[in-house]
Write a structure and sequence with these properties.
- By secondary structure, the chain is mostly helical.
- It is 73% helix and 0% strand.
- The protein is built from 3 helices and no strands.
- It is elongated and about 60 Å long.
């Protein structure tokens, strides 16, 4: 099964960087809310620690994606 290709897929492909940026931003908001909710309601401290770690990972991902987009990388 073959399909005709134009040969310009690399130039016309959509970048997954925008999706990563949106998901990382959503992750930050989600984990801030859930972590705060757990700690305010007397939840376990380890849940707050996991939330902080995931927030830091999301921030690092946003920085990496932003730098790659500024450099002109497509994905």
């Amino acid at each position: 099964m073959s399909r005709d290709r134009a040969g310009d897929e690399a130039r016309t492909a959509r970048s997954p960087l925008v999706a990563r940026l949106v998901l990382a931003s959503f992750g930050i908001l989600l984990w801030i809310g859930l972590g705060a909710l757990a700690l305010v309601n007397g939840g376990p401290v380890w849940l707050g620690v996991i939330a902080v770690v995931l927030i830091v990972v999301s921030i690092i991902d946003i920085v990496v994606v932003s730098r790659r987009r500024a450099r002109g990388d497509t994905g």
